[in-house]
Sequence to fold (529 residues):
Amino acid sequence: MLIIHCPHCGPRDHTEFSYGGDATVRRPADSAPLDAWVDFVYLRDNPRGAHEELWQHVQGCRAWIAVTRDTLTHAISSTRLPAEKA
Amino acid sequence: MPDAVLARMDARQARGQTAAVASDMRMKYSVFALARNALSGHADWPQAWRSPQPKPSYDVVIVGGGGHGLATAYYLAKNHGITNVAVLEKGWLGGGNTGRNTTIVRSNYLLEPNAHFYEWSLKLWEGLSQDLNYNVMFSPRGVINLAHSDTQRDTYFRRGNAMRLNGIDAEWLDRDAVQRMVPLLDCSDGMRFPIVGGLLQRRGGTARHDAVAWGFARAADSRGVDIIQNCEVTGFRIERGRVMGVETARGFIGAKKVGIAVAGHSGHVAAMAGLRLPIESHVLQAFVSEPVKPILDTVVTFGAGHFYVSQSDKGELVMGGDLDFYNSYAQRGNMPAIEHAVSCGLAMFPSFRRLRLMRMWGGVMDMTMDGSPIICKTPIEGFYINGGWCYGGFKATPGSGWVFADTIANDRPHKLNASFTLERFARGAVIDEKGAGPVPGAH
Fold:
């Protein structure tokens, strides 16, 4: 079990959360060229190591949480609200 | 072990095997070879493949010594006469997903690119043991996908009809026929998701996963391919848009062409060549029960959740379910995913309730954004990619090697992988079997 420290609810099992994927992708402007949209929709860095990701605390406060987690060890080094810096 | 046998083994090691190996390698496995070796206490079987030092350069270097990489090397040698080939493996052969799957082989796909590709792979499976002279224990015991509602039955009719139009076998079984074929299955009305029937592909089944890697390795080696284990690739040398070779833990190895077949590691290996892929790596777990007497002689998948089960020749029930649903390269997962899969299994087979789980493991899945593989050329000349196998790489092993070898040898896609490009995502020509959209975990 991963333990995710929700900024509102404290340490909780990851089964209370829904995974939202890579937190570094940014939606381009509507007028952005096609390449930017392909990048946003399909391409991922998929790092082996530290990964910035989003989890939603669906069975708790329902807030989206930004998490820094190592994809090789599953160790979580930081959790915060998405607007806050790591 | 008797002293005489040990003495023979010592003598063998002492006189060195390099000269003997090349001829030994071509020794055919047969019932006569078995009888002959029984007389010497099975101590004189030759090595199945050499462990050569890497040469300074090769015509083709394949990165990844799993089933796909080894099959690619084998078909490069067999179909295209390209034998100056090395397969580089960072660990041991078949230690990745080739040894971490649930061994299911099938070609029951809806969409044409997948249907034709996986059907060709299944046809290769049917003759693979003879072709490789290595028993891969392919067992066409049938694969049943259960349906639990009228709607699901209709979608299976649609898939079954699509398969038959593509020349692939598919049969609909009603509930009674399913029950006759799988007596332990709970087909009662009292089930939370009552079974209405199932889509059966009789020619599907299982194979012995390790034997697939070993069989391809032995057959490729005997045609001159160098298989180099414990040789991690740390970078690619690319000059003026063309690949020149690979940097490895054992030094630089030159190559006219490089193909990567590294499954879950596609993302960061391709990144060494400056490519960004439509792939996320996720962990998928599988597990086996303690061995029991034969109770299940086919493969069954649950339709109301994600669960699949078969029984191995050793008697263990081999089971798997969903991903853990977060990016991972860890080759291990968490208990909740196992618990969820087991509860699906027990809904189908209440009699499995008292079995104990014996082992569990995780593999790193290269999940693409449409659920279909990528086998293609890249913007870098002489650099080819084979990956994005999601849950389904094992059954693809021979077909994948066949078309990847053809793509590398001729520097253009084989017609069976012409759709499995990287560009399909930008062009909107995705091959999304389930219509799940660009969410890797959903495929």
Notes: The first helix of chain B runs from residue 3 to 14. Chain B touches chain A at residues 265, 267-268, 271, 276-281, 325-330, 334-336, 369, 425-426, 438-441 (CB under 8 Å). The longest strand of chain B covers residues 357-368. Residues 60 and 85 of chain B are 5 Å apart (CA to CA).
